[in-house]
Write a structure and sequence with these properties.
alpha/beta; two-stranded antiparallel ribbon; Rossmann fold; 6 helices
Length: 171
Amino acid sequence: MKILEIRRHSIRTGDHLSQTGVTLARLVGQNIGPFDRVVTSTLPRALETALAMGFAVDEQNELLSTYGNAVEKEAPWPQPFGVYAEIIRNGGPAARYAHKLARYYAGVMEYISEGRSALAINHGGVVELGVVGCLPEFDFSSWSEPVNYCEGARLYWENKFIRAEVLRVNQ
């Protein structure tokens, strides 16, 4: 089995992490990994989060940075995972974006070896849409809150994403 952790960036001031954000990312990073592949959005706060967690970044991808106005209008952040799941079932721009994320994450999983893990760091809304896109039939009803800083989900892969667990951080 392979594992993908998808997490939101840490606390920021403007485009960059604040000192509090660096401290939080360091604390979270001490308790996760190791990762054979680390990908982030192209925005500085995502890259800085990975580095503060203690992980070198293998790739930055624009797809993980933002989802654009059409998706924002249809699926504004913040929403619980279950709301994003309902929106995606309706088919529109959010569904198309979530499916692109799922295909990208599947490619990340193909890159790593069996029994290994990868990390993706991006943004609120992008995290939720990506997780739901990877597991469209999963019951997210108990995941009642959107992700906060450094939170996200751990997805399990066996030739496809098969299950997930939410990752929360006590702040």
